[in-house]
Design brief:
The chain is mainly α and 265 residues long. It contains 11 helices and no strands. The chain is flat and about 85 Å long. The two termini are 15 Å apart.
Length: 265
């Protein structure tokens, strides 16, 4: 690792403050983040029906026109819309929340560390959006068709089995998938950060490739519905992201070696 320059030390030293000042600054950032979330929640709750209709589009496309959703509690739909507003509001307010976190942490970092960490902070929401989009447009339609395939028509001596999806249960199912895929798509960010601090190297990641593929397959089998197509729809992108992570760590190592050579010179 490259030692900090005197200018870096002076900059961090100037940012030092008593503990009470740090607590006041933390309270300020938390208040700003909460206000941003509340405003985004109110906006998203006003459009909760439209957002929920967007989330149910894959289900509506897979089911026949005469199918519908049900709710069994008087308050179920209302609280479902509240959860939709909170979920969408959190996603909408994330840039502001991340910015407040960055403004609180950045003064305690060296300039080189800020330049190194900022790309990862920017990549996090991008990869989450990619994972959520992958759920909505690739994985979820396959999963819905798989589960709808278990409907059974009735006969003279048998009862029909028809899907009657509940409003709240479908939202929980979709939110779980979005969070699961959004978090697993953060693999390049996590592995690159570990490579940045020197915990992992590209050689170690290449040596562990076969074990990583086995682990990714197991994770995909746990997070996705029990069919091969859904499992592969998560496993294949994650394997690709693992390879991208190796490439990112290799670039980090190359830049670090170049900086160390320049510092030694």
């Amino acid at each position: 690792m490259i030692a900090p320059t005197p200018d870096d030390e002076a900059e961090v030293e100037a940012s030092k403050a008593p503990l009470l000042d740090h607590l006041i600054e933390l309270r300020k950032r938390l208040i700003h983040a909460i206000i941003a979330f509340v405003i985004c929640f109110i906006i998203c709750f006003a459009f909760a029906k439209q957002i929920y209709a967007f989330l149910t589009a894959p289900l509506a496309h897979a089911l026949a026109p005469n199918h519908h959703m049900i709710y069994t509690a008087l308050y179920e739909t209302f609280f479902t819309y509240v959860k939709v507003g909170m979920f969408a509001g959190l996603c909408l307010a994330f840039p502001v929340i991340a910015a407040q976190l960055w403004l609180f942490v950045a003064p305690g970092l060296y300039k080189r560390e800020r330049r190194a960490f900022l790309p990862f902070l920017l990549a996090t929401p991008v990869l989450f959006i990619i994972g959520a989009s992958f759920v909505m447009y690739v994985m979820l339609p396959f999963a819905i068709r798989f589960f709808v395939g278990y409907e059974t028509p009735g006969g003279p001596d048998t009862l029909s089995i028809q899907l009657q999806p509940k409003v709240s249960e479908y939202l929980d199912f979709v939110m779980t998938l979005i969070f699961a895929f959004g978090l697993t798509f953060q693999m390049p960010v996590l592995l690159s950060l570990l490579g940045r601090v020197g915990i992992l190297s590209s050689a170690q990641l290449r040596a562990a490739r076969r074990y990583a593929i086995v682990g990714i397959t197991a994770v995909a089998g746990i997070l996705t519905p029990p069919d091969v197509v859904s499992m592969l729809s998560l496993a294949v992108p994650l394997v690709g992201l693992y390879e991208i992570s190796i490439w990112c760590v290799r670039l980090i190592e190359r830049d670090r070696a170049r900086e160390e050579a320049a510092a030694n010179a």
